[in-house]
Structure formats: C-alpha cells, structure tokens
Amino acid sequence: MILQSLAGLPAFLVYFCTALIAVVAYLFVYTRVTPHDEFQLIRDNDPAAAIALGLSLLGFVLPVVSAIAHSANVVDCLIWSLIALIVQIIVYYIVKIPVPNLSGRIASGEMAPAIWLGLSSLAAGALNAACMIY
Q1: What is the pLDDT of residues 51-107, one digit of tens each?
Q2: Three-state SS for 134?
Q3: Whole-angstrom Cα distance, residue 98 to residue 47?
Q4: CB 129 within 8 Å of CB 121
Q5: Spatial distance between the Cα atoms of 41 and 106, rounded to a whole number of angstroms
Q6: Gap between the Cα atoms of 99 and 79, Å rounded
Q7: Domain residue spans in the chain?
Q8: Are 74 and 14 in contact, with CB atoms under 8 Å apart?
Q9: Residue among 92, 85, 103, 90 at smallest CA distance from 28
Q10: Count of alpha carbons within 13 Å of 88, Cβ hemisphere only?
Q11: Which of 54, 55, 71, 56 is nearest to 19 (CA)?
C-alpha cells in the first residue's frame, strides 16, 4: 500500500521543483520590474512592501497551481507559468495608472497603495487560474 502511494513521488518531485523554479523566476523578474527594492524594504521591516509582494506572489502562484493540476506535461506547466508572470507584470502597470508614484508610496510604507496593488494582483491571479481550462 505504501509503495503504491509512493509511485507518484517522482511526478510530485518534478512538478514541485518546477513550481519552485517558477516562483524564484517570478520573484526575480517581478522585483526587477518594480522600481522599489521589495526585499530590502522587507528587511527594513516595511509591511507595505511585504503585503504588496506577498499578495502578488499569491496572485502568481494560483495560476501555477491551476497549471500543475491541468497541464499535460511539465513544459505545458512552464508555458502557463510564464503567462501567469506576464499577467502579473501587466497588472502592476495597470494598477499604477490610478495611483501616481505607486512604488514610491509603497517604499515609504503607505499601506493603501500596497493593499491596492496586492489585492489587484491576487484578483488577477484568481481570474487567470480560473481561465486555465484546457
């Protein structure tokens, strides 16, 4: 029984490692697109940066979860993860439109712009995940 349960372990490891690589790639790209240094701000105990980045990460991970659940193979999963990354970058630029100096305001610790960005990213990620029907 245990051996039967462990039969899926190789596939689990492949998809889990693929997801981790996608997350690291997302964080690398996203933190270079935004003008503020999220990780430095988080190290400096700026909750606005943590909220914005954390919710953005959730907005990215939701479609990745959907891609893992629905993809035909790992390459398919990576393609949809790339699409999820692109969607999150687009959301960042759209969210900046009604909030002038969004990054500067997050860097100065303002919570409202951070929550706006984070929840917008999460909403877009949820929609993105739901649209991944193959």
Answers
A1: 999 999 999 999 999 999 998 899 999 999 999 999 999 999 999 999 989 999 999
A2: coil
A3: 22
A4: no
A5: 9
A6: 31
A7: 10-131
A8: yes
A9: 85
A10: 37
A11: 71
pTM for this prediction: 0.93
- Alpha-carbon distance 39 to 36, whole Å? 9
Tokens of 59: 């907005």
CA 133 to mean position of chain CA atoms? 19
Spatial separation of the C-alpha atoms in residues 118 and 24, rounded to whole Å: 18
The Cα 79–Cα 70 span in angstroms is 12
Let me know how long the chain is.
Answer: 134
Distance CA 50, CA 69 (A): 28
How far apart CA 123 and CA 80 sit, in angstroms, is 17
Helix spans in 71-101 (H) = 74-96
Amino acid letter, 115: I
The amino acid occupying position 47 is: P
Could you give the CA distance from residue 3 to residue 91 in angstroms, rounded to a whole number?
Answer: 44
